[in-house]
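Subject: sequence -> structure tokens, single chain

Hey, anyone have a minute? Need the predicted structure for the following. Not urgent.
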Amino acid sequence: MNLFVYFIVFVLLSIGAYWYGRRYSLSLVSRDRRRLHSLPQYYGYYVALWSVVPAFLMLLLWLFLDQDLIVHLVSAGLPESIKSLSPDELGLYLNDVVNLAKGNITSSEGDAIMQQAAAHYRHLLQISHMALGIAVTGSVVAGAAFSLHRIRPDFRSRPRVERMVKWLLVLSSSIAILTTVGIVLSVLFEAIRFFKIIPLTDFLFGLQWSPQMAIREDQVGASGAFGVVPLFAGTLLIALIAMLVAVPVGLMSAIYLVEFSGSRMRAWAKPLLEILAGIPTVVYGFFAALVVAPVLRSAGESVGLQVSSESALAAGLVMGIMIIPFVSSLSDDVINAVPQAMRDGSYALGATRAETIYRVIVPAALPGIVGGVLLAVSRAIGETMIVVMAAGLTANLTVNPLDSVTTITVQIVTLLVGDQEFDSPKTLAAFALGLVLFIATLLLNVLALHVVRKYREEYE
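Reply:
Had a minute. Here:
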């Protein structure tokens, strides 16, 4: 069974366990709920949690270890001539065995030994699926029997259910934290490998980006320059243009919808504005490449300016339109949350509507506004498709918005596309770029938090 089938089964089992646990608790007191320590639904929750949670954790652990264990057993049954191969060659051979067993394309023709190993893999996989079904069923039955055995009229089910839910929440938050730590460490280790080949100073302060490494000494057009400054310049230039569009328009739209528009206008305008966030970025890319860029080029030629067919201005303008909802929606919510009493007090002191908005409402909503702007900046820095289609791939060190530039995220995608050696500087450069972008985003978050605290202290 696949994961979706297991999910449906667990949902049905939890519903059935809840219903039976609730009914069983009522049967112990002849349906007199006053004799129960907790409400009947908590007994149902208790049975459902003990029936499903241990089985679900077992399923996740089983699926995590299943593939590696089967491959190890298949590897142990191979002839010595194959097991004596180098780790890379043995890994490639076992990968072909797995692909052959699953009916996928292999990198080489399967000989008799590979066919036998694939059959062994399928046999072990079938045994694993049967054992998993038995183990999960046994865990559900054991959990249900254990929980039902403990249920008594004086059994304190509510505190135990709340404690179990608390540990489930802690586990969920731990998974999120560990996932973040794993992502950072995986990028960090590969970036360290890159910096062992390319000096850190050359990477951070280099003014030329040309990651094509020469395979032969006489190869032309493979300079191998890994200066990240042009990429940072292009990223910041496009993000700055986008924010110059998104922040004023988004913030003013939020102020208008909350403070000036009527309820009917707000009911129509806000959903229409938020539709911009649901449009695929590739559509924005087509719009920038086919509409905005030609218009900018024609307008530039009419006034004697030379505008590139792929420019930072075109990408930044369209990206700014795309991230307007990130600013307007969050700003709308936080401005709307400012108590009406603060507005009334400002008006009672003789302040105008503009003064009230500027001196009372915006300072009170500033933390949420900064959060929305920060989210929009992160979205602008991480955008790829619009830049590829509207700004190009050329790493030019320029602050002219009419020139073609590229960004860090575009180069990460470019470096990891195609059949390349994973340990080459060209490929490892993608991880170094990811690490630097992560650090830059982290510093941006710290700065935004400092600004929010400063203004909050002044306002309070």
